Model the fold of this input.
Amino acid sequence: LFYIYKANLSSFKANLSLGQQALIETYPDTFRIPVYQTYRTHHVPEFIYEATQKNYLSARLIDDGNGITDVWQGPPFPVPTNAIQVLWNHLVAWRGVHIKVDMSEVLVQENGVYQEVKSKGEFASPYYDPDRAIFSSKHVKIYYLTRTISPVSLAGGALLIYDTLNQRLNPRKAWFYDSQQRRVKRIPALSHDTPNPNSEMVRVVDEVDLFNGLPDRYNWELLGKKEIYIPYNNQALLDASIDEFLTKHHISLEHTRFELHRVWVVEDKLKEGENHIYGRRRLYLDEDSWLAVLAEQYDKNDVLWRVSLSYTKFFPEMPGVWKVADTYHDLKSGQHFTQAVRKRENSGVIFSNELPNKRHFLPAALRQSSRR
Done:
């Protein structure tokens, strides 16, 4: 329909996040947002709607919002009244029961130089097992497994993560397979602002998925709903090659699609006495899918430091809206980092409504799977 760029920015500020405005101001020659007609494509299997109705009556926050309990296979708080409830809808948002996906991670330096890290990932969500009973906070909500394919120096390595519905009482468990030493190692701490592999600290651990893990170090506030031009229905981005969609300061917006959608807006401020590299953060969550689609990270002096965008599309195989690429922009260093779903060797994303056997996600299986 039109582009939003430096010259006409003032006309559209009401429907842009502060982070989007900052990206336009920082890269006025190239950051032009292409706006298309809005299509609310998100819908999910019927069992999730039925479970969501039950969650309205049963789901509860526990442990000061660090966990949830008595939940079925859907958003726990379909009519949220506070920021933590909105956040939990994102933390357990529908992403399919079992996904196999080819991925790329790319850190682009300020001068445009980059190296691509290719991997194969799996996400299995016991939370969305259609046949399960009601869940409590001790249950594992998701298994995450990734195996590095290239470059050669990293090939063969693998990472396995278990996430529960209360990571304070039942902490995240993580293991790494070192292909050089041929050993499986338990990772003691993989949370909050721990540096994230392959990103040179442009993304920290709790920025994966724009936000994940424990909300315990921040005070959270619900700022309400707003209509924002957000990344949506990005099929062209999925079809483009890495070389086609990467540019010096950000991904190529010619391959993207933005639409006007309602989002929930939540903000957190670092609690007194707690430590994190970010003093304040703001998240924008799609009203339909509950996925976080925009995020702003501020430093300890409350200066906007980093801006993140999640480019989503509707996957009919799932069915539902899920991500094509998450992009992270460091306004101070000029670097940007992208984690993207890729199409390789006639593959890309494979969805299944059946969970694999639990043995598939045992630490002992890491070595064999990496060899394969």
Observations:
- The longest strand covers residues 218-231.
- The helical segments are 18-26, 46-58, 83-91, 235-239, 242-245, 365-371.
- DSSP finds six helices and 18 strands in the chain.
- Residues 13 and 119 are 38 Å apart (CA to CA).
